[in-house]
Task: structure prediction
Amino acid sequence: KAVLNRFPVKQVYDSGQNYKTKMYNDFRLQIEKEQIPFEVLRGGQEVPVNEMVKLKVLSPQALYKGTPSDTNNNSLVLRLEYKDFAMLLTGDIQAEVERDLLQTDPEALQAQVLKVAHHGSKTSSINEFLAAVKPKIAVISSGEGNKYKHPSPEVVQRLYNLQADVFNTALCGDIIIKSNGKTCDITVEKFYDEQQAQAA
Result:
């Protein structure tokens, strides 16, 4: 709802899983009230954003059932493509989905920018998955001082081992990525030093 209240939303995409929470019900009610189009996506679909930008849906092919966290694993996994630039958006997926994606089409995972899965949780970002993505830039969305202690130091170290530049919203605030279709520039709301990064 915070996103709907802050930004002009023209379209909502979802995996179609049946969330049974008040927060999600309120979200759906607001979408209906504002008459925002809502569409369920599945792996294999492609969403044309405009003439040059497209979103490829990599997961889920079908809704996951019986995993340690179906809610997280049913997140949409999207590959944003603009000319030669690609960004992989992984939602809250965990290791089970990462392994499935590696089996399906590992080449489709490669991207200059990775939105790290599940706030950098240790349940995600297995070595093989990160090696397939080969990110130059890794963006972790986590709240400052969050109770889950995201991101996991092990996940951050795995990203450093791949020589990725790691940006964490808890340290950087807003992170803006602009691409010319080949490379990209990163702008952060606030700067931090390496010592702060290690402490976080």
User: Anything to note?
Assistant: The two ends are 28 Å apart (CA to CA).
